[in-house]
Amino acid sequence: QGIAYRGVFCLICPEQMIALDGSALQQTIDDCLLRVQAVSTPSGWLRNMVSPPYRLADCVKVLDCGASRAEVARNDPRSLGARLFAKAAGMPKTNWKPSNNRTKGSNRCNMSLFSEALDEYECPEVPEDGAVVIHLRIGDVIEKSPSSMRNILNGSGIAWAHHGQVMGLPTMLSRLTMLQPVRRRVYLVGGNHISALHDEKARRSFEYSFCVKDVMEQAGYKVALDTRSEHMSDADNAFCFMAHAKKLVLATGGFSAMVGQMAQLRGARVMGDLHNWHGHLLSSTRTRLSYARRCKD
After folding, report:
1. Which of 117, 140, 268, 291 could form a cystine bridge with 112, CB 3.0-4.6 A?
2. Which pLDDT value is given to residue 106?
3. pLDDT averaged per 10 residues in sequence order, the chain, 297 residues
């Protein structure tokens, strides 16, 4: 039950928080890794039934969702990808270009149209004001990492892709301290776009998610974890949920960077690398609207 702290109702008040850093944090991580060995991977963990695959960030960044535009529209005409392609249908092809390592194209056009599509999308749920949302990059990046789970969790693990580290608990806890979630409420959101990675084949992702949530709860936070990945709408709903956060912590990769930009345009405080992809950024809502008009001419 919540109690009153300095006149404000809170579930867990500052005096109840446990300081976890240094050796205390490492011991807590080690204890969790021992416990999770006795926990079976949940049936259907990270199962993705979408075929062909649906890669939302690539829909915007390289104009290739994994599925064709027709397949995206046929699978779910209400999806963010289908809405984006419908908006792009009448736009000059010179303004609608892929962005990759070699050419950045006119990616601000892609992003401005995607922002319009997101505005029209009906989120089934958004985080309450003051909560902190953390994007967990699980799936292939962790499953193929050469690092031990101990090193991934303590922040010294190397990601399989994106030329960086998987976000460890020291970084997460530090950012939570800076963002100060209201009522200690934290949402962890992750997913998987690769159909072959699920159940035991995604065991490392389960251990990572389990221990991130466990350690945060031991530190006194109220934590909810959402890793639904089965349908196209799961990726869209996760993106929409995170993009409407007021306080957001990013992971690596284009999906997370796009979420961060959309959240920032909506006034969120965002921590993480907004430049962690090869596309252009929209600096403000005014810039977005300017490009939305310019790209259609």
Report:
1. 291
2. 43
3. 34 48 89 97 94 86 80 92 86 58 53 89 94 94 90 81 72 94 94 92 97 95 95 95 97 88 92 67 51 56
How far apart CA 235 and CA 227 sit, in angstroms, is 10
| Residue length of the chain | 297
pLDDT value at residue 215: 95
CA distance 294 to 297: 6
- Residue in this structure with the two tokens 């251990």, named with its chain if needed: 207
Beta carbons of 277 and 137 less than 8 angstroms apart: no
pTM for the structure as a whole: 0.86
**How would you classify the pairing of strands 8-10 and 185-190?**
unpaired
- Written as six digits, the tokens of 105 are 């194209």
Q: How far apart are CA 78 and CA 57, in angstroms?
A: 17
* CA atoms of 72 and 75, how far apart (whole Å): 5
Check residue 94 and give its pLDDT.
56
Listed residue (134, 135, 138, 158) closest to 207, CA to CA: 138
> How far apart are alpha carbons 213 and 138 in whole angstroms?
14
